[in-house]
Specification:
Layout (H helix, E strand, L loop, with lengths): L8 E4 L6 E5 L4 E6 L10 H46 L13
Antiparallel strand pairs: 1-2, 2-3
Amino acid sequence: MSEPGDPTLQVTCPCCKATLLVDPREGTVKEWKEAKDPRKSADLKDAMKLLAEEKARVDARYQEIVRTDKEKGATMDRKFKEFLEKSQDEPPTKPLRDVDLD
């Protein structure tokens, strides 16, 4: 930390939360202190808890994707059957050729 007579400024980086000691006269960084990462300071019990939460979150997301995919498949089957019935009701037509347009 800077002393009362020392003209250094203590600044916290908004991006990485590190503490910087800056000399305003020279415009240079005199000292840099890395911010403590709460993930690194967690103990084993917290790590197990975090892993369990992550697993639950991943499982929930997977189940949501599976459910959405099943709904999408059912919707596609329903649309296919509708179009199939619609196409069976209409008589088949002869396709238009380029020669027919002349």
